[in-house]
Amino acid sequence: MTTGDPEQPCGGNRKSATALSTIAVQAGQSQLVVSVLKSGSAIHLQLVQAQPGLCEIGSSQEENQTLIQELQQLLDTLRNREADALAEVQRKQRTELSRREQHWRSQEDEEEERVFQAMVASLKEGWSVLLRLLQRRLRVLLLAADFYQRALEFAVSISRVDSLQTSSNQDRLIEAQLSYESTRRELLQKSLQVLNSSNILLQKLRQLQKTEALQRRGGILQEEEEEEEESCSGSRVSGGALEVELLVERLQDRRRRADQVLRLWWAKDSIVDQDAQPESETDGPDKTVRRV
User: Fold this and answer.
1) In the 8-state DSSP scheme, what is residue 225?
2) Does 3 reside within a domain?
3) pLDDT, tens digit, for every residue of 116-158?
4) What is the Cα–Cα distance from 239 to 55, expressed in whole angstroms?
5) Domain assignment present for 281
6) At what angle do helices 102-163 and 239-275 cross, to 10 degrees?
7) Which residues constitute the domain of residue 236?
8) What is the edge-to-edge ordering of all strands in the sheet holding 8-9?
9) Would 292 be classed as within a structural domain?
10) Is 194 exposed, middle or buried (0-12, 13-18, 19+ CB in 10 A)?
11) Considering its fold, how many domains does the chain have in total?
12) Which backbone phi and psi does 272 adopt, to 5 degrees?
């Protein structure tokens, strides 16, 4: 914990704030830097840096799992650092009081105690807001893990459809058609699961984007109510949300293409099979008439 600059604006607030300390925690490649600010009798927290960003979910299952593990470690560390932050606030307050004359201090002891208790209460509330914000990010990462798993299962189902186009042999064709009818239901189910999972993830990501935008503007951490889906649906997508939408689009395009190619292959194979039938089978009755 290090002391910060003596005065700086409290983001989004007209009152100036004194930076009491800066707290930095790290786990792997993930890092958080939090400033503890004093404004009057209130303590505010400011998320100065979050690396990676609050809305980063990882570009793969492996990256996503790494982010989840590192964030859980950061949460554990921050829970243990709350006592350090309280101690630093108390130390700063005592230093300020020691500068005053003894008789003034005795007259204002009661008032100063109320101020100190207000500072402690606001710090605890700010710390809870910080932890809840990180828990929101953790829920988003877990939703992303579910999405990646369902996307993988969907991709495997598409690969099964691709593998049906293996031979023009008539027996294999019939076998492939029967197999497709049984796997088509599974393919559509996996497709629906991916769409549902991505919709839930995108909703939570859009909500988190607004918090991240406030943090980037230097705003203090404050309680936020999660918005309804309708109010977030028009939000601009970027970062992790954009990657999710692009992955869903690629998978759906691949599904449609695999289905179309397979149907065209079957249609072509059926025509070739009809043309290859023996002439005696196609015009047998006419030949019988001529012989008579």
Assistant:
1) P
2) no
3) 888 889 999 999 999 999 999 999 999 999 999 999 999 999 9
4) 7
5) no
6) 10
7) 8-275
8) 8-9, 16-27, 30-39, 42-51
9) no
10) buried
11) 1
12) -60, -40
